[in-house]
Design a protein that fits this description.
By secondary structure, the protein is an alpha+beta fold. An 11-stranded antiparallel beta sheet has the order 3-13-1-2-10-7-8-5-4-12-11. It has 2 domains: 63 residues; 172 residues, Cyclophilin (Beta Barrel), CATH 2.40.100. It is built from 3 helices and 13 strands, in the order αββαββββββββαβββ.
């Protein structure tokens, strides 16, 4: 064999070795890439498992919530009532309207509540100042989102009191007026709409009123202004009354309605003769 042939053979051996080494490097690189991909997959799967367990825990907690004991302060749910809005929490500083606005006139007012509409007939012939005040407060949206803050259920006193935007029983429109059209015998039949007032019969009326849902006796010698009658929706008051009372310092039968009821808006139209 000549030297030229030996060099050729040696070169071929060297090229084969280089090719073999290149294949090994390529295989090693391919394995490294595969390992990296598998590592990412393992991490992702692990994260998904952890996330899945976390969501499952939350779901289990939510599913268990209805079985928990209700809060003592939770409101009673009544069919047909939506959750009441938060009260606006403010009174007003308005001027007393002229009673001549309502004298000799009658009106129909729709009191929209979260439990449905209560419709009342307002009598301006017998209580013109109270009706004029009601018209003005309705026009001013004074009662928007105001809770009915008091419910009584004693033998001779069955009323739902509303009309205070603060929901505390302490709010007023910034003015007062005297008693009108109070029954001499102190009786207020079911369906009566009357003004609530302070102890002052001359200036104690303002924006608060009460709906009588059961025949009531109020022997106060000065009485309370009767200015209207409920014509429909008294069953709503019955339903709220049947749900009970949250007791107060006035006793177990005189406090906040257990089933919250709030005035959303009031619309008034004059009745034409």
């Amino acid at each position: 064999m000549t030297k030229k042939q030996e060099r050729a053979r040696a070169r071929r051996r060297w090229e084969k070795q280089q090719a073999k080494m290149a294949r090994r490097e390529a295989d090693r690189a391919r394995l490294q890439r595969l390992a990296a991909v598998l590592g990412v997959v393992v991490v992702v799967v692990g994260l998904l498992v952890v996330l899945g367990l976390t969501l499952q825990d939350d779901t289990d907690d939510d599913a268990a919530a209805p079985d928990a004991s209700p809060s003592p302060s939770a409101s009673t749910s009544v069919e047909g009532c939506e959750p009441p809005p938060a009260p606006l929490g403010t009174s007003a500083e308005l001027e007393l309207p002229d009673k001549a606005v309502a004298e000799g006139k009658t009106y129909e007012a729709t009191i929209a509540t979260n439990c449905g509409d209560i419709v009342v007939r307002l009598d301006g012939t017998k209580a013109p100042q109270a009706v004029a005040s009601f018209l003005e407060l309705a026009r001013q949206s004074y009662w928007k989102d105001s809770p009915c803050h008091r419910l009584t259920a004693t033998e001779g006193l069955k009323v739902l009191q509303c009309g205070d935007p603060t929901g505390t029983g302490q709010g007023g429109p910034g003015y007062g007026f005297g008693v009108e059209n109070a029954p001499e015998d102190g009786t207020y039949p079911r369906g009566t709409l009357a003004m609530a007032r302070t102890s002052d019969p001359e200036q104690g009326n303002g924006g608060q009123f009460f709906v009588v849902y059961g025949d009531t006796s109020l022997p106060d010698p000065d009485g309370y202004t009767v200015f209207g009658t409920v014509t429909s929706g008294l069953d709503i008051v019955d339903k709220v009354a049947a749900a009970g009372i949250v007791p107060s310092d006035r006793g177990p039968d005189d406090g906040t309605p257990a089933a919250p009821i709030s005035i959303l808006s009031v619309a008034v139209t004059e009745e034409k003769s």
